[in-house]
Design the sequence.
């Protein structure tokens, strides 16, 4: 498994425990579903448009499942989920935490090629990255 990091200083106000949970869930899913030899790319974009992106070369998600993946206990493929673990709660938690922070989650997924999950934070949550590092 190859992991690439493309990180710019980025900071937003919010509950650090819950935002860490979002990041951990998205990265955990990418690790869980990306096959050996695959790639995970983590990207942060700072400035006036703070984003956090997790992209993987896993199996991807068919379009008919996308409207349901945030439902509690929903699993795209029950057999694969049993093999890889998980409760079906991770993305429901991600969506709830991001909503509480006024953020949005964009998903781009192509079966057989992988998925990209991007968290967009609203301008009122964005703080200067340099200022947040000083505290």
Sequence:
């Amino acid at each position: 498994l190859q992991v690439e990091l493309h990180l710019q200083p980025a900071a937003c106000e919010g509950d650090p425990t819950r935002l860490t949970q979002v990041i951990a869930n998205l990265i955990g899913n990418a690790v869980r579903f990306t096959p050996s030899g695959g790639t995970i790319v983590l990207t942060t974009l700072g400035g006036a448009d703070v984003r956090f992106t997790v992209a993987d070369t896993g199996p991807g998600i068919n379009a008919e499942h996308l409207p349901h993946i945030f439902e509690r206990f929903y699993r795209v493929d029950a057999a694969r989920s049993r093999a890889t673990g998980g409760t079906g709660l991770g993305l429901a938690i991600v969506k709830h935490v991001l909503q509480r922070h006024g953020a949005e989650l964009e998903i781009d997924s192509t079966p057989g090629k992988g998925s990209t999950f991007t968290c967009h934070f609203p301008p009122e949550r964005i703080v200067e990255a340099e200022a947040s590092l000083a505290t």
